[in-house]
Design brief:
Elements lengths: L12 H14 L1 E4 L5 H17 L15 E2 L10 H5 L3 H10 L5 E7 L1 E2 L25 E7 L11 E2 L22 E2 L7 E5 L4 E2 L11 E7 L9 H4 L2 H4 L4 H9 L13 H9 L9 H17 L1
Helix pairs in contact: 1-4
Amino acid sequence: MPNYYQALPELSADEIGQHQENIAKQGFSIMENAIDADFLSALQAELELLEEVRPGGDIPPAPFTGFHTRRWFDLLNDGDIWQQVGIHPWVLAVLSQVLGDGFLLSTMGTAVIGPGEEAQGIHCDDMVYMLPRPHPNLVCNTMWALDDFTEENGATRIVPGSNLAETDPEATQPPESFDTIGLKMPAGSIAFVLGTTYHGAGANQSNDTRYALTINYCNGRMRQQENLMLGVRQERLMSFPTELQDILGLKICQGAGHIFALDPREEMIRRYGTGDAQDPYLERRNALRREARGSSEQS
C-alpha cells in the first residue's frame, strides 16, 4: 500500500490557526487539495469493491440515513487504505487544537448519495451525548469530498455560526426551517464541521451519484460512536500505525483510558506483540452483513 501522504506538505502554524478560527467562529472550515488524484482514485476503487461485497451499504434505507444513500461502516476491517484515511496529517494537526490532546477516532463511514435523495434533517453530530449547551468541543466531523460538492448533487447544508447557539435544533427539522448555505467544495477537499454546528446532507437533484466520506472524531473523554476498540480484533489493531492506535484508544487522555495507570499500548504489546493483520472472521463478515441487511429490509 503506497503512502498517500508522502508528498503532502505540512500545514503551517498560520494555516492551522486559520482553520481553528474558522471553526470557532462559523462552525466549519474547508481545506482544499487535501486528497491528491492517486488517493482519490484508490478510494473510488475501494468504494466499488465495497459495493461488490456488501451491495447497497451496511444499513437499510431510512428517513435520516437516506433511501438512496449507501453508508458502509467498520471500514478498518476492510482495505488497508482506511488506516490512512483515519490519520490524515492535516486533519490531525487541526483537531489537536479543536478537540485537545488525546482525541479519538469516533466513527468512519461513507456517504454515497444517489440521484433523487432528499435532503437530510438538520441536526448536530454531538446531540448523541444529550448534553446541554454551551459545552466544550466534544465532536468534530470531517467530510471528504471525493467528488465536487455542488448545490445540485447534495452539498451538505450548513447554518453558519450555529455552533454558538444556546440549544440544539429540535429533532431533525428540514433545511427550509433554517438559513443554510451549501458546503460547496471541489473534489479533493476536506471540510471540518464542529459537533455543535447545525447541518444536514443536501438533496441530490442531479443525475449523478455524489461520493464522500464522513470521518468523525471526538474528545478523548467521550465514548466513540462506533465501537472501534471491540470491532477490530486486538491482534489486528496492534498491526496498525502508531498514530492510528493512538486515536483508537491506546493513548491516555489526561488520566482516562489507562491500564494499570499506564498507556494501554504497554499492556497490549505484552499480550499481542506487534500484532497480526489477518483476522479469519473477516472472511465470513461480508456474507453475514448482507444477510442482516436483507432481514432488516424485509421486516
